[in-house]
Amino acid sequence: MNKVILIGNLTQDIELKSSQGGTSVCRFTVAVRRDYKNANGEYETDFISCVAFNKLAELMDKYCRKGDKIAVSGALKITAYERDGEKRTSTDVVLHDIEFVQGKREEGERQRKPKISDLASSDIPF
């Protein structure tokens, strides 16, 4: 089973792009605070790369902004590639679902959607 669940904050605004095949995609990072403090008495944070496709990517572009606290679930995907003759790997969480964790924004700010779920499995490209 390959399942990842994260709760954290978006580190940047969502930027929606289209692939050559017309698929909507957005890549972003979620900052997730660890549950324990380090030797200096401070919480450490992990920055997790995520990607969403099609309807989920479009909904995130419409409703998500930098600093929003979200809960995401998905699958871990490791991709091997070569750049400048050097072999590399990248690790991303491919999203299946997202929920907003923080409360409503002040009036006049972007409208919020309380939950994004129940998307068709055909919206996920693997």
- The outline comes out as globular
Q: Beta-sheet strand percentage? A: over 45%
Q: Helical region count?
A: 1
Q: What level of helicity do the residues show?
A: under 10%
N-to-C series of helices and strands: EEEEHEEE
Which spans of ≥5 residues are poorly predicted at pLDDT below 50? 112-116
Q: Report mean pLDDT, rounded to a whole number.
A: 86
Structural class: mainly beta
**Largest beta-sheet details:** 5 strands, mixed, barrel
Strands side by side in the biggest sheet: 1-3-4-6-5
Total E-strand runs: 7
Separation of termini? 15 Å
Based on CA atoms alone, the radius of gyration comes out at 16 Å
What does this structure look like?
The chain has one helix at 54-63, and strands at 4-10, 17-18, 24-37, 43-53, 69-83, 86-100, 115-116. 16% of the residues are buried. It is built from 1 helix and 7 strands, in the order ββββαβββ. It has a 5-stranded mixed β-barrel with strand order 1-3-4-6-5. The chain starts with a strand and ends in a 10-residue tail after the last strand. It is mainly beta and 126 residues long. Helices cover 8% and strands 52% of the residues.
